[in-house]
Amino acid sequence: MHSAVQRANALVTIAAILLAALCTAASFLDSFNSPSVQAHVEVVKINRFKRQLDGNDEVKMTLNISMNLESIFTWNTKQVFVFLAAEYETEKNSLNQVSLWDHIVQEKERASFRVKVPTKYPLIDQGSNLRGKKIGLVLHWHVMPKSGRMIRDKMPLSYLSLPNSYTTKS
Amino acid sequence: MDWQGQKHAEMLMQIFLVASAVAAFAIGYFMRDFRLMMLIYAGGVVLTALVTVPNWPFFNRQPLKWLDPSEVEKHPKPQVSSNTTFSSSKKKSSKNK
């Protein structure tokens, strides 16, 4: 500690250790937050259900989505990525997941909303297994904190039964 | 900076940094504002640097008291013996043992 450079070095070292401690503490407190997400989704209309030229089934629909993600937000939350996935089982795969719609929520004030949207991404199967299939709609969310690890969670919302025949000829 | 000054500087540095970290975390948590916590902590670090890094006069209040030159004259350093032959012969004899 006899020179200014040595004191500056000691200062920066202690400051960095304490900064790491602050971030760790902030991240640790996040684990005591147990959010209760409320969400609801319904299929307003199936706009298109067809077999593509390459033989894969494709579904486009309009969705009514409402959710309240406010309880996810803590002082350490940077943003929340939320997406609606269609999950179903086929002979080939025990779980197929297709993202239909997603959204990034950056503020707690905007975390409660209701939208009526066409699916952002079409539901395309690997093959033609979708006729008469029961499809689960699952809401997934990834909480990205300012410091600490990303938290993933999901909640099954409702089921959708696709019609037994295509609505559009390819 | 004298010895006491160095001790005080180190103590001040640790107390200031820990205090600003605790204050920043408490205020940030209760205001639910992560950015505020970082700003308060950064301010604390800058303040601590200003207080402890430069060689302020109050770190030099107990300067080391060196002996007077006159004292040195009264107690002269022990001189190396001029009887080199004796010492060398002694060394040789010890080596031969």
The total of helices of chain A stands at 1
Work out the helicity level of chain A.
Answer: 10-25%
Assembly annotation: heterodimer
Please write the string of helix (H) and strand (E) elements of chain B. HHHH
Shape of chain A: elongated
Given the structure, what is the number of helices of chain B?
Answer: 4
Largest sheet of chain A, in brief, is: 4 strands, antiparallel
Describe what this molecule looks like in 3D:
The complex is a heterodimer of chains A (170) and B (97). By secondary structure, chain A is an alpha+beta fold. Chain A has two domains: 1-32; 35-161, Immunoglobulin-like. Chain A is built from one helix and eight strands. In chain A, strands 1, 2, 5 and 6 form a four-stranded antiparallel β-sheet that branches. In chain A, strands 4-3-7-8 form a four-stranded antiparallel β-sheet, with no helix packed on it. In chain A, β1 and β2 (57-68) form a beta hairpin. The longest helix of chain A is centred in the first third of the chain and has 27 residues, at 4-30. Chain A is elongated, with a radius of gyration of 23 Å. Chain B is mostly helical. Chain B has a domain at 1-54. Chain B is built from four helices and no strands. Chain B has helices at 3-31, 34-52, 69-74, 84-96. In chain B, α1 (3-31) runs antiparallel to α2. The longest helix of chain B has 29 residues, at 3-31. Chain B is rod-shaped. Chain A binds chain B through residues 1-2, 4, 7-8, 10-11, 14-15, 18-19, 21-22, 25-26, 29, 74-76, 146-147, and chain B through 1, 6, 9-10, 13-14, 17-18, 21, 24-25, 28-29, 31-34, 37, 41, 45, 48-49, 52-55.
Quick synopsis:
The complex is a heterodimer of chains A (170) and B (97). With 170 residues, chain A is of the alpha+beta class. Chain A has one helix spanning 4-30, and strands at residues 38-51, 57-68, 77-88, 96-105, 112-118, 123-124, 134-145, 151-161.
